[in-house]
Amino acid sequence: MILLKMNNSMRTKHILPFIIGILMTLLSMVSCNDYLEMPAQGGFNKDSVFINYRNTEKLLYDLYRNVPHILQPWGNNGETMGNALVAISDEGSSLTLQSAYNSHKVYAGTVNSTWFTTVTGRGEDKYNWHYSTIRRCFIMLENIDNVPDALDEVKGRIKAECQTIIALEYFELLKRYGGVPIVKQSYTAIEYPYIGRATVEETCNYIIELLNQAIANPNFPAKVTNPIEFGRATKAMAYGYKARTLLYAASQLFNTATPYIDFGANNKLISFGNYDKNRWKLARDAAKEAITYCESNSYAIVKNMDVNRNYTVACCKTPKDGNTEIMFGTFEDTDAFNLFYTWNFRGRRGGAAANVPTQNVVEFYSNTDGSKVNWDVKITTPANQPEFPYKNLDPRFHQSIAYNGCKWCASNLPVVQFYDGATAAVTNGMEGKAAAKTEQPFGYRKYMNDLECLSGNTLGGARPVAPIMRLAEMYFIYAEASNEFEGPNTQAFDYLDVILTRSGMPVVNRTLTQDALREYIVGERAVEFIAENHRYFDLKRWRRPIPTKIYNMKILKYADGTYTYEKIAPSVPGIPGADPLAIKTRFWADFWFLHPFPIDEINKGYGLIQNPGW
Length: 614
Description:
51% of the residues are buried. This protein has 21 helices and eight strands. 34% of the residues lie in helices and 5% in strands. By secondary structure, the chain is mainly alpha-helical. The longest helix has 26 residues. The protein is globular.
């Protein structure tokens, strides 16, 4: 495995499990704290890196240290206390009793450009990390041909990897900031350029240009065939990022003549400046190309197992464990205990409730017959059936969410007890509000399904897989883009049906209108990609505010063994008398559709224009 440490604040992360250690002296040669990560003069001796392939390989794996995170995407525990992207969308919440959780700043609206995107700000993104990776990739591209003992096909593969990683980093910038400064080479301090923002169109075009170059490279493999190389970029990943980028380009946030805030002469920094229906066609065609390429190279939707297992394998397993669907993924490794601690619920499980699902999440799911549970009415269960409201929900729900009455793992431990006693004569549940100060009666289990009981309250040293990109996403991109371009169509329905039926859900109603199918896809993306870092950015690219009303569920147990489930609406600031279980209504402002650039970058005076509102 690779142990990659970023300064003093970056958590150790395993990208690939087959290199043990990276010489920190080599890492320091390509790292500094300024824009574009320019080293001090004389601080980078290229000859020491590119003198042989052994040293070059160490730099190669360092290129992956900033790939997107899922399970702890905001850095290490010391910075963010374990909050993930789920905690700032309607996918999740974090314990309000823990004031150090930085998600609370988002809920209250007390964030600024220093907090949100700087290395020291403990916010959602670290702006300069993207450029540090881009610079290291260009150093590799500019010098790989000088490595004397590397085969030509190895050099070609590395070039395509670098192009794909640069494209990945620019996509991560695009979806957060819109148009950004574009660099196409490494720079020294003397050559430091004046670089302002490119337009959204220029940024998108550059990403596609890089990906097309990688795709055209004959030495770029379709997939890694050696299990120890899991996590390296592949041609399938390049096809996938091309489709993903074009989907964002076609979506409502960017594909418009009227951006979310009028930016005057700078409108093209945050939008294309016009609506072009053909952008949806480009996204559709790119998704089809990705699907065709992947499926001709032994990728496939996981559907050869039980409906109660397919989804877990597709999301959380490696190819050697049967996952034919994952196009790019990493091992998320903070250490096993930290992962369990931050993604588990309170009570006997030992969790910190840094990231827990909400009642909103539960309402994403349908029953297996396609109907919906009416959560707006109080539900009373039969005696001794705490799981009653949930038992017929989509199998993906049971593989993703822990709920009252579920069996957390294959052991003799009691079922999960997210309830309080209705009277003093009834013992409170061990994970309920009274016993454990639980605020939401749910927990995430998606990444811990097979791991949760390996060793008491830890993961037994196991490392879950973070699914950065799955073939299922390409199916969804095709369905969404083709619906927007031409309306409902057979291929879109067929692709959606594959995803639904592999989890035991009914096929899509073929009579849906374009508007209805759009909303259906919005709902199904929320289910299929729960806690995979899509929802937060999906809502933004659709130009839909992040929901501010977060609902809760009050669960009481009675002496006769029955339970009641009562949905609790969020409280409104300034209006007293709310239920004690009510979650405060969260903050949203339209200028949050795009992130702010760090204020210290704006103040350097090289032409970086701040996004409107910040």
